[in-house]
Amino acid sequence: MSKQDPAVVLLSGGLDSATVLAIARAEGFACHALSFRYGQRHAAELQAAGRVARSLGAVEHRVAEIDLRAFGGSALTSSDFTVPKHDAVEEIGGGIPITYVPARNTIFLSFALAYAEVLGAFDIFLGVNALDYSGYPDCRPEYIAAYETMANLATRAGIEGGRRLRIHAPLLHLSKAHIIQRGIELGVDYSHTLSCYDPAPSGSPCGHCDSCLLRAKGFQQLGMADPARR
Fold this sequence. Notes:
By secondary structure, this protein is α/β, with parallel strands linked by helices. The protein has one domain (about 5-225): Rossmann fold (3-Layer(aba) Sandwich), CATH 3.40.50.620. It has helices at about 15-25, 45-55, 105-120, 140-155, 155-160, 175-185, 210-220; strands at about 5-10, 30-35, 60-65, 125, 165-170. Strands 3-2-1-4-5 form a 5-stranded parallel sheet, with helices on both faces. Helix 1 (about 15-25) packs across helix 6 and helix 6 (about 175-185) packs across helix 7 (about 210-220). It is globular, with a radius of gyration of 17 Å.
C-alpha cells in the first residue's frame, strides 16, 4: 500500500465510526468519508459526521440520499415504534432490538463498494462491533467475511483489479472502553460525535437509549467524563 491509497470510510458521526476514520488515517489512507441521509429520525448525526470528517482530515465527506422509510420496520425510520429507553446498561435485553434497521449495513456497504470502484479504492472501513453493541445481525464477523467474499465476486475491481477488495472492521472485537482508548491515542475529539438513537431537537443525547448507555459504560470504565455530555 502506498501512503496515499484511497479508502472509503462509512461515517455515521458516532463514537465508533469516528475512531475508525482515525484508524484508517493513521494507516496512511486518503480517507473518503461516506454518510447517509436515509430517513432517520434526526439530522443531528449528519452534522456530527461533518464535524468528525473535518476534524480528522477526511479528503472529502459525501452524504448519500436514500429513503429507508419506504420500508419502515425500525424505530429509527418509522414513527410506528418508539426508541427503547433504560436507566442502566444492565437493562438492555437480549435479541435483536427494534432500533435495528433492516439490511442497513448491507445497503450502506453496497454504496461504499460502488464509491470505492469509482475511486479506484480497494479498502472500505466501517465501525461494526461484536462486543459492546445492541445485538444487530449485521455487526457479526461472519457477516463481514461474507460481504467481503461477495464484494470480490460482484465487482469489476474484484475481478480485474489484480487486488482483493478488503472490508476493514478494526473495532470488531474491542470493548467500548478499548475503542475510546484507541481513539484518544489517535487524537479523536469525542465532543464532535453523537451516538444517540433519539436525541433532542438541539442534538443533545437522550442518555437512556441502548447506544447512549453503551457509550457511557465505555467512558465510565476508563474513569473519564464523556466530552459530549458537558
